[in-house]
């Protein structure tokens, strides 16, 4: 796999000029994560230097009006920064907290973040996603009001769902909420009843969303994995909706290399493991094929290969 990862890294570096967005899924933050990780994995410092320069470009691109989404905006960039800080790629002086701007925008105005995402084709609960990430780094620096607001705004959002009887929320949004609140239920000692009620409402609306085919195939796969995680932290088998949901989602496709390649950032964002029993030889052959086609698919070079490379290194035990 070392040769495969080296080829991914060199292809990405050779095509950096094609990468203009700053975000996680389709931009510089995702590539930055890969290059830092690959520098440590390979021992070649040049990739660390390239990643550092790329990070400077990301900071230069941050503007108050940019997307707040975890996919292509501030929450995804914040997620990436937390990963780099946790893994020791960056140092953070408490007096010069590089996460402060993210905290202020995403965690002090959760409803504003939701409203800014609403017009996009894929809406996520990005403040909650960032909150979970942020809780994994210097949690003692966090303000309790941030958690209260993320919970409170979810309740407000669910009440809004109930009023809009003609429009069922997309499964992508519900998935992101399920991810956030299943993990908050596991982490927090307080607000258990509130969070459980939120989770039950999310599951109810998920069933409606699936019935109305308001999803992409990846949404079903992620939903199944999020439900399995929830079953580990909460006794959900007693709820009738669980049996119904499992019946509704047991038809989805098995994960294959095309599915991994096109959607890996989702699994990395949600800290889920898509597949374990795939052979290294199959991965290597698939990546070689994609690298040969990369001249015709710049988007793949800019994002998908970086995500796949991060996953390959995680399979090999590299942080």
Task: Provide a short characterization of the protein structure.
67% of the residues lie in helices and 0% in strands.
Give the structural class: mainly alpha
First and last CA, distance: 16 Å
The radius of gyration over CA amounts to 20 Å
Oligomer: single chain
Question: What is the overall pLDDT average?
Answer: 90
Give helix % range.
55-70%
Number of strands: 0
Q: Which consecutive residue ranges, at least 5 long each, have pLDDT under 50?
A: none
Order of helices and strands: HHHHHHHHHHHHHHH
**Count of individual helical segments:** 15
Note the beta-strand portion. Answer: under 5%
What coarse outline follows from CA principal-axis ratios? globular
For the biggest sheet, the summary is: none
Organism: Bacteroides faecalis
Protein name: Lanthionine synthetase
Keywords:
15 helices, mainly alpha, 0% strand, 319 residues, globular
Please, could you describe this protein's structure?
- This is Lanthionine synthetase.
- It comes from Bacteroides faecalis.
- This protein is mainly α and 319 residues long.
- It has a domain at 168-251.
- 67% of the residues lie in helices and 0% in strands.
- It contains 15 helices and no strands.
- Helix 4 (74-86) packs parallel to helix 7 (126-135) and helix 10 (192-211) packs parallel to helix 12.
- The mean pLDDT is 90.
């Amino acid at each position: 796999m070392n040769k495969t990862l080296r080829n991914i890294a060199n292809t990405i570096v050779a095509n950096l000029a094609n990468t203009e967005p700053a975000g996680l899924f389709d931009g510089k933050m995702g590539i930055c994560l890969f290059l830092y990780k690959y520098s440590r994995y390979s021992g070649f410092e040049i990739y660390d230097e390239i990643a550092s320069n790329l990070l400077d470009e990301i900071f230069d691109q941050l503007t108050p009006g940019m997307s707040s989404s975890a996919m292509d905006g501030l929450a995804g960039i914040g997620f990436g920064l937390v990963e780099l800080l946790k893994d020791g790629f960056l140092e953070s002086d408490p007096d010069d907290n590089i996460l402060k701007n993210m905290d202020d925008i995403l965690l002090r105005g959760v409803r504003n973040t939701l409203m800014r995402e609403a017009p996009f084709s894929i809406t996520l609960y990005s403040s909650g996603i960032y909150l979970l990430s942020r809780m994994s780094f210097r949690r003692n620096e966090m303000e309790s009001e941030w958690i209260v607001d993320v919970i409170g705004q979810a309740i407000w959002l669910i009440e809004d769902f109930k009023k809009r009887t003609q429009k069922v929320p997309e499964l992508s949004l519900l998935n992101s909420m399920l991810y956030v609140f299943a993990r908050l239920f596991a982490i927090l000692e307080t607000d258990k009843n509130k969070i459980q009620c939120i989770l039950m409402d999310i599951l109810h609306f998920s069933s409606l969303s699936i019935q109305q085919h308001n999803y992409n195939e990846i949404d079903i796969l992620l939903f199944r994995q999020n439900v399995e995680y929830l079953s580990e932290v909460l006794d959900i088998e007693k709820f009738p909706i669980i049996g119904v949901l499992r019946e509704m989602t047991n038809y989805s496709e098995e994960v294959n290399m095309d599915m991994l390649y096109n959607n890996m950032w989702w699994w990395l964002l949600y800290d889920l493991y898509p597949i374990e029993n795939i052979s290294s030889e199959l991965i290597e052959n698939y990546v070689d094929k994609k690298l040969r086609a990369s001249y015709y698919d710049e988007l793949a070079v800019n994002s998908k290969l970086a995500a796949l490379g991060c996953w390959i290194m995680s399979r090999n035990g590299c942080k």
